Amino acid sequence: EAGVAQSPRYKIIEKRQSVAFWCNPISGHATLYWYQQILGQGPKLLIQFQNNGVVDDSQLPKDRFSAERLKGVDSTLKIQPAKLEDSAVYLCASSLEIGRATEAFFGQGTRLTVV
Amino acid sequence: GEDVEQSLFLSVREGDSSVINCTYTDSSSTYLYWYKQEPGAGLQLLTYIFSNMDMKQDQRLTVLLNKKDKHLSLRIADTQTGDSAIYFCAEIFSGGYNKLIFGAGTRLAVHP
User: Fold this and answer.
1) Which of A19, A37, A51, A65 to pair with B61, CA 20 to 30 A apart?
2) pLDDT tens for each residue of B49-75
3) CB atoms within 10 A of CB B4
4) A37-52, pLDDT tens digit by residue?
5) What gap in Å lies between CA A90 and CA A107, rounded to an integer?
6) What average pLDDT does range A3-9 have in this prediction?
């Protein structure tokens, strides 16, 4: 079974530039998550999709972050414009269904450095 | 609110047992999880426990759940150097929609 694919693995941009991350979840997984993990902290949920609908984006800084899930499969997360404090690892995860004992599978993440 | 707390660091000698502790806030959490993160890697599910259980054993791993105190622990028996990693406790927070919420992680260092 192929895992969750993310790209790019690393990205360095200057502040005020834009950046986009891509995630391909495991086939058949209805739930997709984007997490932000700042160095030394636990992952913070940014947005959660169920199929192609957003079920939670309460922690997403909507003035600069946006995300979409195309046809309920792939997802992109965009930051525009980036700030220094956005430097973090952005993790994508997917699961069959949340709320049951189903594992959330994580990608390797995209490490973003804003300079 | 949503909050999962863990101690940040644990150092043990190889061969000893490690106990990593976690407290959570949502008394209605249905599942609680332990994830492992090695350097440069994503998170890997180690084990989980359903809220109607108070203990679960899986090879070297033992999970204890105290629902009254909202306390979860992970015991690793015969800790090896390969167990060195960051361990995250996570809960299903069911305020509105089910969300998977993580603690800050406990860095386990295993020394000879």
Assistant:
1) A37
2) 988 889 999 999 999 999 999 999 999
3) 24
4) 999 889 999 999 988 8
5) 9
6) 95
Cα distance from A2 to chain B (closest Cα, Å)? 15
Helix then strand then coil, in percent of chain A rounded to 5, is 5, 50, 45
Separation between Cα atoms, residue B21 and residue B95, nearest integer Å: 24
From the CA of B100, how many Å to the nearest CA of chain A? 8
CB-based contacts of A107, cutoff 8 Å, min separation 6: A3, A4, A5, A6, A23, A91, A92, A93, B42
Chain A residues contacting B via beta carbons under 8 Å: 4, 33, 35, 40-45, 48, 55-56, 91, 93, 98-101, 103-109
Interface contact flag, B98 A99, Cβ < 8 Å:
yes
Is A106 close to B43, i.e. CB distance below 8 A?
A: yes
* Tokens found for residue A91: 């993790």
Predicted pLDDT of residue A24? 96
Q: What are phi and psi of B8, to 5 degrees?
A: -85, -25
Q: Sorting pLDDT into bands at 50, 70 and 90, what band is B95?
A: low
CB-CB under 8 Å, A98 with B100: yes
**DSSP 8-state symbol, A71:** G
Q: How many CB pairs under 8 A join A and B?
A: 56
Q: Tokens 């660091």 appear where?
A: B9
Residue with tokens 């986009």: A20
